[in-house]
């Protein structure tokens, strides 16, 4: 099935979030999947490939960037804050529900990594959501593991960033780095993040250091039992970024969850050769619950 893509925008706490709406050809109103990316990632980082598959199956897609990312407004740039992210999701949902070509009774959420946790959080509070897909989700339960030297760097960077924030600025640290490096994500697979970055993006491998404070306090797994809609939890069994045992444990507390398991790490699910299988299972799940 063909589709048309148009630019969209909506307000969130005084700033403008921007994105795309994929409208399948044919009759309306249609079901819709609301999508956004994970930790410090933008919508152009492989997410159009998913959106196009869903639209081809007859499901509309609203794909957006958080404040501070992509072409959305907000400063400092690249600020990661789960409370702000979840509020952006709420506003995206409200915008989707305002569209005349959307069926409000058939709205699903799709998130990956950090936003996998966001869709769990949203579905726990909004029981009108029809279904969710949480791909390699961050569900909490992680502690930032740093060497003594890197711990001192983290503390100093967070303090400096907090001071800079008082004046509208930011002190940044690397998002990803090789194993043992000082970065938000530093493992043998972390540098694969760069494989999904869109070459045309102004993104860089930096994030305001205050993001480190969110990793321990944000715990989507705590509200997972309140997710009553059908949920597809996609797990990479060799994932070093969002450990599979935590994802399985969270899924086990959801009344209507099913698990799609792959012999893969955190970033392999976005790319060939695994991508077609991953998105195929997700499309089947969404078709089953929305069409």
UniProtKB/TrEMBL annotation:
Gene3D superfamilies: alpha/beta hydrolase
Pfam family membership, one: Hydrolase_4
Lineage: superkingdom: Bacteria
Record has NADP as a keyword: no
Domain Serine aminopeptidase S33: 29-258
Tagged with keyword Hydrolase: yes
Keywords per UniProt: Hydrolase
An MF annotation (GO) of this entry: carboxylic ester hydrolase activity
Protein name per the record: Serine aminopeptidase S33 domain-containing protein
Natural source organism: Candidatus Phaeomarinibacter ectocarpi
């Amino acid at each position: 099935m063909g589709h048309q893509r148009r630019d969209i925008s909506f307000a969130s706490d005084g700033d403008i979030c921007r994105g795309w709406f994929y409208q399948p050809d044919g009759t309306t109103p249609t079901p819709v999947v609301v999508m956004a990316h994970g930790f410090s990632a933008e919508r152009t980082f492989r997410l159009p490939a998913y959106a196009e598959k869903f639209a081809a199956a007859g499901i509309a897609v609203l794909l957006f960037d958080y404040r501070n990312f992509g072409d959305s407004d907000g400063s400092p740039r690249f600020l990661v804050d789960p409370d702000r992210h979840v509020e952006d999701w709420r506003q995206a949902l409200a915008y989707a529900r305002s569209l005349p070509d959307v069926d409000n009774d058939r709205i699903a959420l799709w998130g990956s990594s950090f936003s996998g946790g966001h869709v769990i959080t949203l579905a726990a509070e909004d029981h009108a959501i029809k279904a969710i897909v949480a791909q390699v989700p961050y569900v909490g339960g992680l502690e930032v593991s740093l060497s003594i030297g890197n711990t001192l760097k983290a503390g100093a960077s967070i303090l400096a960033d907090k001071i800079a924030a008082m004046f509208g600025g930011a002190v940044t640290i690397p998002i990803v780095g090789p194993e043992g490096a000082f970065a938000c994500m530093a493992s043998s697979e972390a540098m694969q993040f760069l494989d999904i970055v869109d070459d045309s993006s102004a993104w860089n491998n930096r994030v305001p250091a205050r993001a480190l404070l969110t990793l321990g306090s944000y715990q989507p797994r705590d509200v997972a039992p309140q997710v009553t809609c059908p949920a597809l939890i996609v797990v990479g069994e060799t994932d070093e970024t969002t450990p599979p045992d935590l994802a399985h444990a969270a899924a086990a507390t959801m009344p209507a969850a099913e698990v799609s398991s792959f012999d893969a790490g955190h970033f392999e699910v976005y790319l060939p050769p695994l991508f077609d299988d991953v998105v195929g299972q997700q499309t089947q799940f969404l078709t089953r619950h929305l069409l």
